[in-house]
Amino acid sequence: MIKCVFFDFDDVIRTWEYQLDGLEEEFGVPLSAFRRVAFASEILEPAITGQVSDEMWRERVRQILVTQFPDSDADGAWQAWVSRHGVLIPEALDVVKETKSQVNIGMISNATSRLNSDLRHHGIFDLFDYVINTSEIRVAKPAAQVYLHALKAADLRPEEALFTDDKAVNVEAATNLGIVGHVFTSADGLRTALVEAGVLRD
Known about the structure:
This protein is an alpha/beta fold and 202 residues long. The protein has helices spanning 23-27, 31-38, 41-48, 54-68, 74-83, 90-100, 115-121, 134-137, 144-154, 168-175, 187-196, and strands spanning 4-7, 14-15, 87-88, 104-109, 130-133, 161-165, 180-183. It is built from eleven helices and seven strands.
């Protein structure tokens, strides 16, 4: 029996779609540049494994962009990027809240030290029984240690947990440990998986 459902955050509960539109038009720095720089493994990995703070990660991104776009307002584009928090996906949040009414819920996120602040910004920090922030445990998905940490925090056997993530590799790592897994593609698909797992009613 599933006793706790763990959700990924970005691209499951929160989306950045449209939040960063217009950066190139306003500041001359394309959104693709932010994605290329900020999410390069050598830049992001230290932030999501707690080696550097969110502020240090973002400052490193700023330095690179200013160097790469000397004729654009890279500082202005960076400030716009830093000030935004993404938007919650209403349909997914509904499923999260419905799940919360039946079992405990948790979050497992490859996140920087800003995660708790973002959850509070969106008013959902207190919604989760467990928040596993990889920057706090200093190891990131899909490492097995992340899921083992979550199971220990919730005092669960693997078969008593369900984990959903938009990245198949992260779900596969969880299922390899015996956790029930679901690759997230839509809120409807997630709800169906939770019904099939006996967590929700059809």
